[in-house]
């Protein structure tokens, strides 16, 4: 079921209804040149009206644009039925995972993770028609590699200045054990498609794409107490002069 609040149709450019055409309009009508495969185009205007509203009238939405097919209206349902499969097969870039600090962090400390993902556009051909697809990232799921999964949720996180590393954030994670962990982010995209420069229509469902894993090494820190500071005992462990003769 479509989630678009509008419904759409197209009409020949300059068409006044019945068999009448606007003569001045015909003089400046869009020239639809034949495609390389020999398909001939017709100049059309796209109209829209609110879906399910009694008495709603058709109004100009976009155009003029060229529609290529002897019976293009027969292909639109076929494209709509197949567009979700096409969307899942597109080479959508899920983005990348950024960690702060990286590549090493400390056990028990908050490691800030955030995503870098952007909207992408693709032009494909379906049933001989030009289809423009826009994929927009809307949700993110974080698998931190230690059995903890967070999401899906809408925040992609964000960078922290270095003096704030270790603060808890919406997408940060504290590891309870040491080791190397593979962090995987799954980005959920929503899409729209338009046929032959027609109105953008929503693609049913969503597409999920995984970003390349980010390896994070979790170390442990040791804390020791000493009776003297380095001014009192310059040769004490951890002091700059320790071990120097």
UniProtKB/TrEMBL annotation:
Query: Mind telling me which InterPro entries this protein's record contains?
Result: Ig-like_fold, PKD_dom, PKD_dom_sf
Protein name listed in UniProt: PKD domain-containing protein
Could you tell me which residue ranges the PKD domain spans?
A: 136-188
> At the top level of its lineage, which domain of life is listed?
Bacteria
Q: What Gene3D superfamilies does this protein map onto?
A: Immunoglobulins
Q: Which PROSITE patterns does the record cross-reference, listed alphabetically?
A: PKD
